[in-house]
Amino acid sequence: MTPRRVRTDLVRSYVITGGRHQPSRNTHSLELVSLVTATGDRPLGELDPERQKMVRLCQGGYLSVAEVAGHVRLPVSVTTILLADLIDSGHMVVRKPPPAARPTDLDVLEKVLDGLNNIL
Amino acid sequence: MASTTSSDSGIYVRDTVETAAKLLVVGPFGVGKTTLIGAVSEIEPLRTEEVMTQAGALVDDLKGVEDKRTTTVAMDFGRLTLAPDLVLYLFGAPGQQRFMRVAPVWQQLAHGAYGALVLADTRRLDASFDAMEMVEKHGLPYAVALNSFPDSPHFPEEEIREALDLSPETPLVDCDARDRASAARALIALVKHVHTYYREHLP
Questions:
Q1: Global pTM value
Q2: What is the value of ipTM here, to two decimals?
């Protein structure tokens, strides 16, 4: 099983984020498994090709930040910056951030366990 | 791949999903992390790569482009819908020394993860030490799964526990990373352990 390769291009990453490596105000709430989708009510015309690609990808439904990165073949760090921009501009929305693992999440763990048992 | 949702529309998470849980699958290169993830994932495993400097920051200066000290860290991951409102993400991460220097990536991986499945190969048990060390450093509960390779020597469990210096409560299971049910059983051993761990650490 060979996953799809991502060709990482430092210069390209640098250019498409405008040289930023710090996220916009929305990024702090974006984690690897945060689920995002396109709102569908903003024009794509003014977006650069990478951002357009992300919005188009997410027009079909929800994907995690990591999955968006995998599909558009950009590093997660770059993807997070661009998704934060797109949330700021109203092109994308994030479903409520996943709760960090903590002891009170025992009910989630029990559901995970049930689900795994079901696939045996 | 056991997926029945490989059509284009199948790449998306169901609209009804409220919770995305995360587990890590760690171990040395070639130990079978991506194979195990692929065996249970409903999507074709995806890969993302981060280019990092040894200092651990994303390159913020074009001078860094020619710098040999930059390194690429790859993460392979998959997804499994476990209930109408719950998906599980499995992130594979290498545990080599090289990777340890890029701690921000590990922090991102470990943040919000419930625990980690450490994969080990009995032909080179010591190759899993780095991954175990990283998981322990981040305070994640873990289980160890011995991935069976055709020429893997078999040792008594006690010898393996001693070689890996495992705590008595840490689960040690055999698995065939290519087999969906076997991979799922290894994950079940992990999640049971994580559940006990968090229950005992409730305030």
A1: 0.86
A2: 0.86
